[in-house]
Amino acid sequence: MEIKINEKTFELEPGNIYGLIMEESLIKEINCLVNADYYNDVELLNEVEQKIAALIGVNDGKSFTNNKRKWLAKTIALKSNYLIIENFFSNFTYIDSNAFIKLFRNLCKKHNLIIVIKENDTNFLIENCDYLINYHNANMVSKHDYYLIDFESFDQPDILEFTNLVLEKNIKIKYFYNRLDLLKSLYRVVM
Questions:
Q1: How far apart are CA 112 and CA 78, in angstroms?
Q2: Segments of the chain assigned E as strands
Q3: 147-185: per-residue pLDDT in tens?
Q4: For the chain, what percentages of helix, strand and coil (3-state, to nearest 5) are there?
Q5: Would you call 121 helix, strand, or coil by DSSP?
Q6: What Rg do the C-alpha atoms of the chain give, in angstroms?
Q7: Helix or strand or coil: residue 15?
Q8: Which is deepest, 55, 87, 98, 138, by most CB within 10 Å?
Q9: Backbone phi, then psi, for 90, in 5-degree steps?
Q10: pLDDT at position 167, please?
Q11: Which residues of 39-62 are buried (b: 16+ CB within 10 A; e: fewer)?
């Protein structure tokens, strides 16, 4: 399915969660939640939106995280084929973030939906997305091939920094069969 993100078009498969790596903000459209939305109070108009809101834990208060949940309920109620979310997981607890990832996985599997998540934390994207998209060069890779993405102006994932340090110090990781011995060796290098 073709999805347009700002000015570029990407061919994405339904049933997957994609991590979007880009510096610019997303341009608002009907299937897209952007940073500016979360500050605006939203009213749930119909019964479908209210049922979805109850499922994802919307409270009666007017908090920042509650606005995010209301906007998400409103967007899911549109029943479109894809959903693009910008910086949605900030200010949520670890438990809430995991619950939303599970919700997104269920939506992808059961309703053949495509979810694109744009976050500033590349570690979060690698842990929770099936594929990563580099917006600037329109490169898409599996999350297991994260090292193929060009992280020039972005924060490198921690595992990539660790791997580069190990290679730089010429430590042969494959020769360690005991993880404690590996940790001792790495400790000697770092200290």
A1: 15
A2: 2-5, 8-11, 17-21, 32-33, 82-86, 114-118, 131-134, 139-142
A3: 777 766 677 777 777 777 777 878 777 777 777 877 787
A4: 45, 15, 40
A5: coil
A6: 19
A7: coil
A8: 87
A9: -70, 145
A10: 79
A11: eeebebeeeebeebbeebebeeee
